[in-house]
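Appendix C: a fully annotated inverse folding record. The material below is reproduced so that readers can follow the format used throughout the book. The structure is listed first as tokens, followed by the designed sequence.
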């Protein structure tokens, strides 16, 4: 009898406890780390591979591999669009480089890519010269790889809508480094909550992506890419950005001071076989 009474008492107590629990109010502003749980799903991952070359033959071999083997294999795996770009040389930097930007739906898709490529017979055959290159004639000097995760305000890559001549098109790749991790988080917040992404949208910068760097050589940093029909259009867009009242208000805010310690600006042109 005492056992039954104890069981009934516990059942009633648990019932009262559940009734008194407060249900989540979806209208209440959540702390940042809680709110982010609702925005994580759907954010893409990106790998930016940068090939550096010493010889013409290296450029030819790698171009052939990317066009005939790598991109077709990625499409078979449902990975697209893939951007392939050449760096526009300058007086300060004349080294030949090819940039390959690959989007992934999940980190697992990124981690399994190399294994999938090894199993792909068409990829292995079409890319044989590159894959089986001898040690004393490698198809590149080196490859640098950066792994990134899309911003909350632009969770998926968007291929440029520009339709003008590719030979004149300018892709501008920017990397903003921050002095510390905390300042980096602040700069990312400036893009998202601060409205920097919205301003780029309003001024039609044709952004391809904005991303947080998860692993790379210049951390902590963020990277983004914008597109313009030509160099003159690029210059006009940036003048409009600098003159915009939203930007002037942002840079006057004390909380966003000193969050960038170094910026790299790289101009790229798309290859004929790039998806955009």
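Designed amino acids, in order:
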């Amino acid at each position: 009898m005492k056992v039954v009474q104890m069981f009934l008492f516990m059942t009633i107590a648990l019932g009262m406890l559940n009734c008194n629990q407060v249900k989540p109010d979806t209208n209440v502003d959540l702390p940042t780390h809680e709110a982010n749980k609702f925005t994580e799903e759907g954010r893409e991952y990106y790998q930016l591979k940068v090939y550096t070359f010493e010889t013409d033959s290296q450029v030819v071999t790698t171009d052939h591999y990317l066009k005939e083997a790598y991109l077709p294999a990625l499409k078979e795996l449902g990975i697209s669009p893939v951007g392939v770009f050449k760096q526009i040389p300058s007086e300060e930097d004349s080294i030949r480089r090819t940039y390959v930007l690959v989007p992934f739906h999940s980190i697992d898709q990124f981690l399994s890519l190399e294994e999938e490529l090894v199993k792909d017979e068409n990829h292995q055959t079409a890319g044989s010269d590159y894959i089986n290159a001898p040690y004393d004639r490698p198809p590149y000097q080196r490859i640098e790889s950066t792994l990134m995760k899309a911003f909350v305000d632009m969770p998926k890559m968007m291929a440029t809508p520009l339709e003008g001549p590719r030979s004149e098109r300018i892709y501008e790749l920017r990397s903003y480094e921050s002095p510390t991790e905390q300042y980096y988080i602040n700069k990312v917040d400036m893009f998202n909550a601060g409205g920097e992404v919205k301003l780029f949208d309003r001024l039609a910068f044709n952004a391809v992506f904005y991303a947080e760097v998860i692993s790379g050589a210049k951390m902590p940093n963020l990277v983004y890419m914008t597109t313009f029909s030509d160099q003159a259009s690029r210059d006009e867009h940036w003048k409009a950005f600098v003159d915009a009242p939203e930007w002037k208000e942002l840079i006057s805010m004390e909380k966003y001071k000193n969050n960038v310690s170094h910026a790299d600006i790289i101009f790229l042109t798309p290859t004929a076989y790039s998806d955009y």
